[in-house]
Amino acid sequence: MPLALLALALVAFGIGTTEFATMGLLPQIADGVGVSVPHAGNIVSAYALGVVVGAPLLTGIGARIAHKQLLLLLSALFVIGNIASALAPGFGWLFAARFLAGLPHGALFGVGAVVASRLVAPDRAGRAVSRMFLGLTIANIVGVPAGTALGQQLGWRWAYCAVAVIGLIALAALAAFVPHQPRGNVAGIRHELRAMGNRQVALGLAVAVVGFGGFFAVYSYLVPILTHLTGLADSSTTWVLALYGVGMTLGTLIAGPLTDRALRPTLYGGLALLGATLVTFYFTVHSIVPALLTLVVMGAMGALVTTPVQMLLMAKAKDAPTMAAASNHSAFNLANAGGAWLGGLAISAGWGWASPALVGAALAAGGLGLAFLSGRTDRPGGTSDVITSSQTGSAQETRQVPAP
C-alpha cells in the first residue's frame, strides 16, 4: 500500500510541476517562440482548458477500463503532452501541446483518488487521498522552483523534458505497485453520468468552483502583490512561493485525518478559516514577516478544503465515483480562471493590489454558504454507499456509513 500511494503521489508531483512551472518561465517561452509575454500566457489557459475538457471526456471514455490500466494510459498521454511541449516549433504547436498535456490532469487525479481510497480501510480513506495530493503540494516546494531554475538556465524546453522523465518514472511505479482494481459489471459511461445527476454532487462541485476561487483570486496575483506592497525583490518570489507550498503541504497533512473524523465540519472550518485568513492578509500585506506568516496559513487553509470536497463528491456519487472525482479538478480549474478574473477586475477598477484578498474572502464566504446549503439539504439520517474499500486479493468489502 505505501508504495502504491507513493506512485500516485509521484503522478501528482509531475502534474503540479508542469502546471505551475510554466508561469515562472513565460518570459523565456515568449522569447523562444517569438511572441509577447501576455500572448505566451495563453498557454497557461490552454492547459487549464485541457483539464476542464479532459476530466469528464477521458473519464467517460475510460468508464469500462480497469482503474490501473486507465491510470497507465492517462500517464502515457501526460508524458506525450510534455514531450510535445518540449519539441513544439512555434506558438501554435505549443498551445496545442499544452492543451494535450492538460487533458489527462483531472482524470488522473479522479481515478487516482478512487484507487487510493480503495487501498485502505474505509475509515482511513481521507488520509490515503490526502497522501496522493501531497505530491501536488510538494511540487510547489521542490518541483516548481527546480523546473523554473532548470528552464532559466538551460532553456524552457528542458523543463518540459524533465517533467516527461518524471512522468515516465511515475508510469513505471504505477505499473509495478498499484494493484488491479476491477470496475464491476455495472461500470460504464451511463452509470457514471447517472451518479453525476445527484444534487449533492452538483452542490459539491459548486463549492469547489466558488470557494476555491477565493484561493486563486490571490494566488494568481501573488508575485505582483508581494513586489508592489510587501516590498520583496523579484528574485525573492521563488522561495516565497515555495513557502506557500509548505503551507499547502501542512494543510494537506492535517486534512486527511480531519476528513476521516468529520467530513463536513472539516469543509466548513476550512472555508471559514480561508476567508478569515484572506481578510487578514489584506491588512498584513504591507509588512514582510506578518505577510509571510499569513501566506503560510493561507496555503494551509486552501489545501484543507481540497480533501473533504473530493471525499464528499466520491461518497455522494456512491458506486460510480470516478466521474465526480475527476470533475472536481475541472471545478478547481474553473475556480482558477474565475478567481483570477475577479481578482483582476478588482485591480483594474483601481481598488489596489491588495483588493484580490477581499474578493477571495467573499468567494470563500460564498463557498461556505453553498457548503451549508449542501449539508442542510442532505438526506437527514440517511446512508451513503462508501466507495472506499479494504481489499484482500480480489475480495472487496463495501460498507454503509452515515451520510457525510
Automatic annotation (TrEMBL):
Compositionally biased spans, kind Polar residues: 385-404
Q: Does the keyword rRNA-binding apply?
A: no
Where does this polypeptide localize?
A: Cell membrane
Membrane topology type = Multi-pass membrane protein
Keyword list, A-Z: Cell membrane, Membrane, Transmembrane, Transmembrane helix
According to the record, the residues making up region (Disordered) are 378-404
Predominant location: membrane
Pfam families assigned: MFS_1
Q: What is this protein called?
A: MFS transporter
Q: Which organism is it from?
A: Streptomyces asoensis
> Lineage of the source organism?
Bacteria, Bacillati, Actinomycetota, Actinomycetes, Kitasatosporales
